[in-house]
Write a structure and sequence with these properties.
This protein has 327 residues and is α/β, with parallel strands linked by helices. The protein is built from eleven helices and ten strands.
Length: 327
Amino acid sequence: MTRILGIETSCDETGIAVVADGTRILANEVASQIDMHAEFGGVVPELASRQHIRCITQLVDKALVDAGSEPGDIAAVAVTNGPGLMGALLVGVCFGKALAYAWDKPFVPVHHIEGHIYSAFLTDTPPEFPFLTLVVSGGHSCLIWCEAPHVYRLLGATRDDAVGESFDKVARLLGLPYPGGPSIQKAAENGNPEACAFPRAMTQNDSLDFSFSGLKTAVLYRLREGGVAQEDVAASFQAAAVDALLIKTRLAVQQTGAQRLVLAGGVAANKLLRTRLTEELDIPVCMPSFQLCVDNGAMIAAAGYSRFKHGFVGDARTRPYPGLQLV
């Protein structure tokens, strides 16, 4: 059994996990900072970095205890080295390198999006390569063709706001609490998704890129007009965002001939998106549990296991890269 310690500190969650053979979670600790950042309506980078420093050691200790593991049982230390907030990434990378040095273990840098992709391998029915992946989160909205382990082709990405970012901004316009995804989903339960005619940007062409800034602006203008209920705006916005994701994903399936889809990222927890992809696509959809949609150490450990197995390891010179590209 090969145990990997995974460390995720790219944004506002400190995630530490121990995963066996890339598929079995032995421990998964996540310290969320939502309450701290909610006061500001979004993540404050400096506060996020300081909070990672405060809790990372205790979370590693707890994860080892929960996993029934000693440092000697760990085969490698896997850490997110980008993309993300520079200060937050520095905490994880520096801590991970020091830990790997102290334990005399290999250090494995992991791309954050690759971590989300590998969250699918922590499900009961992990996908087989090749497959199509839709990654949707606060910082990313992209379609990726996964040809083989660590062989990727970016098919489409957002040209402006990521879909999760647009959820947060629209929630603020509606006076709903941060983070916007859960708040809008809850408000939309009592709303009419056809109440507002919001745009589905870039869905009339063959491009696989996304755009959500215009949708956000349309919500702003509709609210200025007045005479519409908060829950109706939330439901209409959510329907438009999910429509855009579904249209582009269906087009990607057609263009690639994909036989399976992986849905990953924080917005993958959206119930409407999960339901519509499952019901309206003609291929199997692999989705991580709600717990594994948010940033977590288990997904980094899973990806780290595969990278370690294929010889992709780092060293003391490995640096964090806020704008690190997957391909």
